[in-house]
């Protein structure tokens, strides 16, 4: 199964015509995750025909407006659409008060269960887990408390090597699950057949790391090592490295350097400053340090096989 | 001078592609007023090239999301654009806490003076006044505390009737201001010349009444009597009058009935429910009760001479 990322907004600071603030829709193992929710995200979800009623988990990196000001509107729209299923919001401490105050003042509390999971740890945390997927925070370095998020498929069960299995008449269908779970098989004569002789490795797991907003912060490298895809902010080009340092953002070169050192398979860059008209300059700069770089683009869906 | 109204959003409930929630930009006597500020308003201001740095006063009718969720983003954008001049926000009690909490949590307090004028009276109030314009609240009947706003030019000074003035050699330039102020002129022989013989009436004043959201509420009629233009919400057609009553909204027929009974010069209707695809039905219904009706339309500027 593929990892599917739809970019809803990939620009920094203020929303403009055809330049939306950060939001992404991630499909992984039948989960539909929304990451960040700048103003206008709900319209972007409609514009790109994203089935947003499927979203059950929203992850907010930090409380700067261009990452969160669209959240209360989306929550309210779910109410108007008669949503019934739970909605989980993960974000920095304060996000619950921010949203609930607005719902209270507009006298429009949700009819569906709205559950907040407030984050305050400066260490990576496992914040979501089921049988298929895990989500961990990636503490970042920005002007306010900020987390990236690491979405990881869990390793599936081993696959039966049917040719090998059929060689042993004693192995029956009811034994298959034990083999998938990694257990050896013991013949009636007492001989042990090693699991490895009967099964194949499970499909390799895919993973997605979302890292925005952040200064150049190599501390994240061990956590994002060899991920299938890394989204790393690249607000500036290298000519504004000084400004990136002051504002705790990154340059395209820095994003690519992180990708290179973390040996990720693909790098997506975004969060472009409005000062640059030609986005290709970001791609050129990043590619000279990390070849497998692609530009985030609003409405574009990337499939990582 | 004309009264100029630019419609930024005229749809109800959730923002959709090409259907924005309520916001209007009003130009009256060199004032630039923003009325309501649903999500996406700042992008609409850019889309229609409204010089939004000129806005100094924002009037918020009520705290439902489709009238206010764009406000915090606009306030933040003014900060990023290095605004220095004062910004005044008029709206229901609670609006200050709603905005300041978000600015606090995003650690992005404005560098410019941001002044809130919270409203809670159920009677009409004069909330803004200078030498040219007055703004009054128009208490409305909706599910939460809501005010419309009445924007009124002040009566200017009388105009000199130069033919009459020149007939009296004794009247000098230094007397003109007294005449404009309405004073009679006394000749040296003691004869009084009535001001009316020397001056003409000032230009008639123009006025604009914004009334949204509200149920059918004839109590507003005395306050909006004979205004130059009335914006009245028309969320539903007459076939959904029952739904209008329950949700405390109005039908096109009811908006037109208010306009007719208030003898206004022009009626603009908007706040259309997304259930109706054909907006012309609103116009047809309203026009059969009040001929001078026009449909609000996003990006459209109406000039009332």
From TrEMBL, chains A, B:
Binds 2 Zn(2+) ions. The active site is at residue 66. Transmembrane segments: none annotated. GO terms for molecular function: 3'-tRNA processing endoribonuclease activity. It catalyses: Endonucleolytic cleavage of RNA, removing extra 3' nucleotides from tRNA precursor, generating 3' termini of tRNAs. A 3'-hydroxy group is left at the tRNA terminus and a 5'-phosphoryl group is left at the trailer molecule. Its cofactor is Zn(2+). Keywords: Endonuclease, Hydrolase, Metal-binding, Nuclease, tRNA processing, Zinc. It holds the Pfam family Anti-Pycsar_Apyc1. Zn(2+) 1 binds at residues 62, 64, 142, 213. Gene3D superfamilies: Ribonuclease Z/Hydroxyacylglutathione hydrolase-like (3.60.15.10). Its EC number is 3.1.26.11. Zn(2+) 2 binds at residues 66-67, 213, 271. Zinc phosphodiesterase, which displays some tRNA 3'-processing endonuclease activity. Probably involved in tRNA maturation, by removing a 3'-trailer from precursor tRNA. Homodimer. PANTHER family: ZINC PHOSPHODIESTERASE ELAC PROTEIN 1 (PTHR46018). Belongs to the RNase Z family. This is Ribonuclease Z. It comes from Lutibacter holmesii. The lineage of its organism: Bacteria, Pseudomonadati, Bacteroidota, Flavobacteriia, Flavobacteriales.
